[in-house]
Design goal:
Two copies of one chain form a homodimer.
Chain A lengths: L12 H24 L6 H7 L4 H7 L9 H16 L4 E2 H14 L5 H14 L1 H26 L7 H22 L5 H21 L1 E2 L10
Helix pairs in contact in A: 4-5, 4-7, 5-8, 5-9, 6-7, 6-8, 7-8, 8-9
Chain A binds a DNA duplex (30 and 30 nucleotides) through helix 1 and helix 3.
DNA sequence: CCGTATATTGACACTCAGTCTTATTTAAAG
DNA sequence: CTTTAAATAAGACTGAGTGTCAATATACGG
């Protein structure tokens, strides 16, 4: 289901075991939270499912929520790595868009399915939504720092967080309808939606209200 | 320190008491979390400081974090109210900017000071940061819904969340340096910074990297 | 193959946020 | 003053998250 590198002979036995445990916990979390609900699933049950103790769980994940969003984590980790490697040239928003697209293209074959399941779960469980928002905000901060370094700009330059925000927002918004269709069309379809969302950004700034709206309530 | 309407004779006694209790809890939270740290302050101590029981605390606030960010809550509540009342005409981003400025202008005289203290605390305590991020995200959703109604657009229109995000991001970014100067210049200075941040939005989209950067590492 | 240093783990105790129930108090209305 | 409805205090209870310690498994040098 997850990355197949757990049988990789290149890694020492100890590391392979750790990877397997981590995957077992993440898979169990996604499945059990989806089936029984986040609150109704206790950590002990989850740990027992993966045949480890509660203490071991916390050696792999900093919180109950974290185990459920591995697919999200893989995505943004790949994004940050791709960004660090990239030579930027031309409009930065476009570069961020391409970087994210490249990161998505390089993910595990099974990632699509897990990502859809993860985001459906997150949309249902507010505790997870909160956690993901905070996680993405941390990523955004790292993107800003990376960009400031590459572009030799003041890290306080307001344009950087705006761009980082827009790039991530566009992707997340693009993902929403894709997810509710069960990921139809695979990640190729996701990237097309992402493209559209990026185009919607300058269009947003041009959005105007009619000069004199009918004034009959509105909201 | 907080709103002075607690002695307002127009309100029934019971309501006045509730307001006083709420303020006592919010003030105690801001002060105690700042002095002793968020984790080191238990709910029982906080409740005892305000001379109520733990159960009462949870009748006023949904979480320990919520009591510390009343100033933030007042701001965005006023923003939503101002937006609901407003007739939109012209570029929407500019309208959101003006709406927020009007909301800030209408807040309590003591709000500035509490807001500075709140945001300094939030920046220090990651649990509070997480909570605020989630709170603002909920506000953003309400802004999108309100805009969709007023502009008669599909609530799924990607431009709406982008605009809502940009308006809030601009304000929060503008607030950062203002806060670290202790709110120097009052809310007038804050609104000037806000103005600059809004201007930085279209400038962000134009930001380009040099065609061939020196390629010497960067980050 | 064996013994030792070093991670990794399980078991357990502990704190505290948050929920729930019940009995008591207090404001408002008649 | 009495009745009614709301607010509150007190305290039991659940479960997440932390810290400690002993047991166990792994890597590694001989």
């Amino acid at each position: 289901m997850t990355t197949q590198q757990a049988r990789d002979r290149s890694l020492p036995l100890r590391e392979r075991k750790k990877l397997r445990t981590r995957r077992a916990l993440a898979d169990a979390a996604l499945r059990m939270f989806t089936e029984n609900g986040f609150d109704a699933t206790t950590l002990e049950e989850l740990a027992e499912e993966a045949e480890v103790s509660k203490s071991t769980f916390f050696r792999f994940f900093p919180a109950k929520e974290a185990a459920a969003i591995e697919a999200e984590t893989e995505l943004w980790t790949a994004y940050l790595a791709a960004l660090a490697d990239r030579d930027l040239s031309g409009p930065v928003l476009g570069e961020l868009h391409q970087t994210l697209a490249a990161a998505v293209a390089g993910l595990d074959p099974g990632w699509d399915e897990r990502f859809v399941a993860t985001r459906l779960l997150v949309a249902r469980e507010s505790a997870l939504l909160r956690y993901v928002e905070h996680y993405r905000s941390g990523i955004k901060g790292q993107v800003v720092a990376c960009l400031a370094g590459k572009l030799r700009l003041d890290p306080e330059d307001l344009r950087l967080p705006v761009l980082a925000e827009l790039a991530m927002t566009a992707f997340s918004l693009a993902g929403r309808p894709w997810i509710y269709q069960g990921g139809r069309g695979g990640r190729k379809a996701l990237l097309e939606r992402h493209q559209d969302a990026v185009k919607a950004i300058p269009a947003s700034l041009d959005l105007s209200a009619p000069a004199q709206p009918a004034r009959d309530g509105g909201n």
